[in-house]
Design goal:
Layout lengths: L11 H29 L5 H12 L2 H11 L3 H26 L1 H20 L11 H21 L7 H29 L2 H12 L51 E6 L6 E4 H5 L3 E9 L10 E10 H7 L13 E6 L4 E5 H4 L6 E6 L2 E2 L9 E3 L13 E7 L22 E6 L9 E10 L5 E8 L5 E2 L1 E2 L9 E9 L2 E11 L21 E7 L1
Parallel strand pairs: 1-10
Antiparallel strand pairs: 1-2, 3-4, 4-7, 5-6, 5-10, 7-8, 7-9, 11-12, 12-16, 13-14, 13-17, 15-16, 17-18
Helix pairs in contact: 1-4, 1-6, 1-7, 2-4, 2-5, 4-5, 5-6, 6-7
Length: about 525
C-alpha cells in the first residue's frame, strides 16, 4: 500500500480563498436563517435577535449618541455594524478551518448556538421554535465551510489548481443559491406579516362619538419651511428599540388588564375596543431623546378610546382617591415596558388607547393595532406601541425598561420652542426675513413666544391660533434684516406663565431644555 502524501502547506492564495470561504459560509448561513425565520417568526432571525440583545445591553449614553449621530437610521447602522463584525469573524473562521477543518465548522456552529440563545431569550419570544432559524442556518454554513476547506486541502501533488477551481465553483454556486433563497423569501413573504397586513387593510375605523374639534383656521401659518400643523404619518418621527417592526394580526391581538386594584383580570380584543365610546383628539407627541431644536416631535389626530374610562370600569382608582397602584406598566409585544403615573392617566386629560392616526389605522411603525397616548408626558413614559398588556403596580415595586438605564421614572414634557426657518447657516436675502417655527408644552399650552436677534431685546412673535393645550403651536416673527452674520434665538412661555430656562441641558435623565438658536448670514 502506498502511503498517502502529507498535507501540503497552504499558500497565500489558499489563505485568501479560505477567508473568502468563511465569508461565503457566513452569507449562506444568514440567508438560510432568514428564509427559515420568515416562516417561523421574522424577529427570530439571528442578526435581529443578536441586535436586540445588543440594544438592551448598550449603555444609555451610547444609545443617545447613536440617535444624535444617525437619527432614525440608528437601527440600520447597528445591523450593518453587526454584519461587518460577523464578516471579520467569518474570514477568521475560514483561516482557522484551513488549519483545523473541523474546528472551523464547529466555530460556525457555536455562532449558531449564540444566535439561537439570543432568539429564545428575547422578551418577545414565547416558543423554542425561535431557535430553529439560527440552528438551521449554522448547520448549512458549517457544512459548506467543511466542503470548501476540503477543496483547499488537496493531499495529491498537482491537485491545487483543480481544487481551487472546484472551490470557486462550489462557493459561487452556494452564494447564488443563497441569494436566490433570500429573494424567494422576500417574494413569498412571511405568513405572519401577510396576515397582519391583511388585518390592517380590512380594519374599518369607527366614527368617533366625540370627534376632535375642527382645527382653527389660523392654526396653520402660510410660511414656507415651517412644520405643518398636522404631521403626515410618513414624516412622523420614530424612536424605539425594535430592529424589526412588529407585525401583529389585529384579529388575534388581545390586551390583558390586571394588577393591583383591578377588579378581576380582563382580556380585551380590538372589536371590544372599537365597540366602546370612540374619541378623536389632536395630540402632540415628543421623544425624550429630542435635543433642543431637534426633530423628534410631531402632531397627529388620534382615534381611540379613553384609557381612564377603561380603568375605572375595571375598579382602578388613582392614588388621590385611595387607589393602591401609582404606576401603570404597559408591555409591548416585543417586551418593552413603559411606566406611566396612574394619576396622570386618570386626571381628566385625554389618555387614549389609540387605533387610528390621521384618518387611517395606525401604521405598523407607529404601533398597529393599538398604542397608548398620554398628553403631556414624554413617549418613554407614556406612548407604548404594539401594546399587549397593562399592569397596575407601584413605582417602588417595579422599574420599567428605561429606568435602570439612567432615565427618570416620571417625565412630564418640558416647554420647548424651535426655529424651523431660516435654517441654520442659511443665507437669506436682505429685507424682510420671516422667522418661524413651533413651540410645545403639552397639557399646559403655549401663551407666548419671543425672538431675539444676537444680544438685542426680546420681541414678541405672532402666535398662530391654538388648537388645544395638548398640541404644538406655530409662531412667526417678521425681521427686517441687513446684510451680516446673526444669531437668532427663540424662547417660549407655557400656559402656567413659566418661561423656558436659558441654560441648555442634555436629554438625560428627563428631557433636554434650553433656548434654540440658529446662525444665519444675510446676503
Amino acid at each position: 500500500m502506498t502511503p498517502s502524501a502529507p498535507p501540503r502547506e497552504p499558500t497565500r492564495t489558499d489563505r485568501l480563498l479560505a477567508a473568502v470561504g468563511g465569508l461565503v459560509a457566513a452569507y449562506v448561513s444568514l440567508a438560510v436563517a432568514d428564509l427559515v425565520a420568515a416562516r417561523v417568526r421574522p424577529e427570530a432571525a439571528p442578526v435581529t435577535a443578536v441586535g436586540g440583545a445588543v440594544v438592551d445591553r448598550t449603555p444609555a449614553v451610547v444609545k443617545e449618541w447613536a440617535i444624535r449621530a444617525f437619527g432614525e437610521s440608528d437601527k440600520t447602522v447597528l445591523q450593518l455594524g453587526i454584519l461587518l463584525l460577523l464578516g471579520l469573524l467569518a474570514a477568521g473562521i475560514g483561516l482557522l478551518a484551513l488549519r483545523h477543518r473541523a474546528a472551523g465548522s464547529a466555530a460556525v456552529g457555536a455562532f449558531g448556538l449564540l444566535g439561537a440563545l439570543a432568539a429564545v431569550t428575547r422578551p418577545d419570544s414565547d416558543s423554542a421554535l425561535d431557535a430553529v432559524p439560527s440552528l438551521v442556518g449554522a448547520a448549512a454554513g458549517a457544512a459548506l465551510l467543511y466542503v470548501l476547506t476540503g477543496r483547499l486541502l488537496a493531499p495529491r501533488p498537482g491537485a491545487a489548481t483543480a481544487d481551487r477551481r472546484g472551490f470557486l465553483i462550489v462557493a459561487a454556486s452556494a452564494g447564488l443559491a443563497a441569494t436566490g433563497a433570500a429573494a424567494l423569501g422576500r417574494a413569498v413573504g412571511s405568513p405572519v406579516e401577510e396576515n397582519a397586513a391583511a388585518s390592517r387593510a380590512a380594519l374599518r375605523l369607527p366614527r368617533p362619538a366625540s370627534p376632535a374639534p375642527p382645527v382653527p383656521a389660523g392654526a396653520q401659518l402660510r410660511v414656507p419651511g415651517i412644520s405643518p400643523f398636522v404631521t403626515p404619518n410618513r414624516d412622523f418621527y420614530r424612536v424605539d428599540t425594535a430592529l424589526v417592526v412588529p407585525k401583529i394580526d389585529a384579529g388575534r391581538w388581545t390586551l390583558r388588564l390586571h394588577g393591583s386594584g383591578v377588579r378581576g383580570e380582563r382580556v380585551l380584543t380590538l372589536p371590544d375596543l372599537t365597540a366602546r365610546r370612540v374619541v378623536e383628539r389632536d395630540i402632540t407627541l415628543a421623544c425624550v431623546s429630542n435635543e433642543v431644536g431637534g426633530p423628534y416631535v410631531g402632531n397627529a389626530r388620534w382615534l381611540g378610546v379613553s384609557l381612564a374610562d377603561l380603568l375605572r370600569e375595571a375598579g382602578v382608582r388613582p392614588p388621590s382617591e385611595g387607589g393602591p397602584a401609582d404606576q401603570l406598566v404597559a408591555r409591548s409585544v416585543d417586551g418593552m415596558t413603559i411606566g406611566t403615573p396612574v394619576e396622570d392617566v386618570m386626571d381628566g386629560r385625554d389618555a387614549l388607547l389609540a387605533f387610528g392616526m390621521n384618518g387611517e389605522p395606525l401604521p405598523f411603525t407607529h404601533g398597529f393595532p393599538v398604542r397608548m397616548i398620554v398628553p403631556g408626558l414624554y413617549g418613554y413614559v407614556s406612548a407604548c406601541k404594539w401594546i399587549a398588556s397593562i399592569e397596575l403596580t407601584t413605582f417602588d415595586a417595579y422599574d420599567a425598561y428605561w429606568v435602570p438605564r439612567g432615565w427618570a421614572a416620571r417625565a412630564p414634557v418640558k416647554t420647548e420652542s424651535r426655529i424651523d426657518t431660516p435654517r441654520p447657516f442659511s443665507g437669506p436675502a436682505a429685507g424682510t426675513v420671516m422667522i418661524a417655527g413651533v413651540a410645545w408644552a403639552q397639557h399646559r399650552g403655549i401663551s407666548r413666544v419671543e425672538v431675539r436677534i444676537d444680544e438685542g431685546p426680546w420681541r414678541d412673535a405672532r402666535l398662530a391660533a391654538e388648537d388645544s393645550s395638548d398640541t404644538w403651536r406655530q409662531w412667526t416673527y417678521p425681521w427686517t434684516a441687513d446684510p451680516g452674520r446673526y444669531t437668532l434665538t427663540v424662547r417660549a412661555t407655557d400656559g402656567t406663565g413659566t418661561t423656558q430656562p436659558e441654560q441648555r441641558t442634555g436629554t438625560m435623565p428627563d428631557g433636554a431644555q434650553g433656548w434654540h438658536s440658529v446662525v444665519v448670514t444675510v446676503r
